[in-house]
Design goal:
CATH topology: Rossmann fold
Bound molecules: NADP nicotinamide-adenine-dinucleotide phosphate
Helix content: 25-40%
Structural class: alpha/beta
CATH architecture: 3-Layer(aba) Sandwich
Radius of gyration: 16 Å
Amino acid sequence: MQNNTIGIVGAGKLGITLAQLARKAGYEVYISGSRDPSKIELSVQVLAPGAHAVTTSEVARVSDIVVLAMPLGKFHLLKPEDFVDILVIDAMNYWWEVDGPRSDSVAEGMTSSEAVQLHLPQARIVKALNHMGYHDLHDETRPAVTPERKAIAVAGDNKADIDTVSRLIDALGFDALNIGALSNGSLLEPGHPAFGANVTMHKLARLTS
Ligand SMILES: NC(=O)c1ccc[n+]([C@@H]2O[C@H](COP(=O)([O-])OP(=O)(O)OC[C@H]3O[C@@H](n4cnc5c(N)ncnc54)[C@H](OP(=O)(O)O)[C@@H]3O)[C@@H](O)[C@H]2O)c1
């Protein structure tokens, strides 16, 4: 596994921004929307040159790491059989205006990432890239060890996967803050202090403690 091919499911504000950052960092990028790839091909070509518009099944088939950047309320449309033994970054948030009642997507007492894990039982879910707005993601990339470099939190149950995602985040231009188990992803959800955070590692650690 080289981890040099990034897949993105969702070609909206977040998906396209991540495609831009990943291309800039030298990754091969495959991206899908909800419909035929031809519907997003031109915008992908213009906004993230070099990224490939494909179906979601193709994204999962060819990518080392897949980022979910689609509305949370639609994750049940993903085919579990497409996501077998794949490292998946859940960058989605529950947003009632878009997703309807939370209980339609996420069972009581669960984090949204745990619900995604339940739907994709053979994927390895890591929560990351969800708490910073797409405009900040776009504007705030900095080389490693730059003073005041901004940080992105990562939650997951497998140390090796957290490390892999942390290296990706570093390559995209941010420090990565390991906040532990996937269940700690609740600390990054809307309504919690770290949601929307565009801050340094030190400050993010305080917001997630
Ligand atoms: N916007 C941000 O700053 C930001 C930051 C961090 C995290 N997030 C999270 O990222 C997710 C996407 O947000 P966004 O702002 O990028 O939304 P958006 O601009 O509305 O884009 C959503 C994208 O998801 C696609 N999509 C919908 N259903 C799909 C499906 N079944 N399969 C594949 N793709 C599907 C849409 O395609 P169609 O247009 O074809 O329907 C669209 O390209 C949300 O969960 C959000 O909370 C957003």
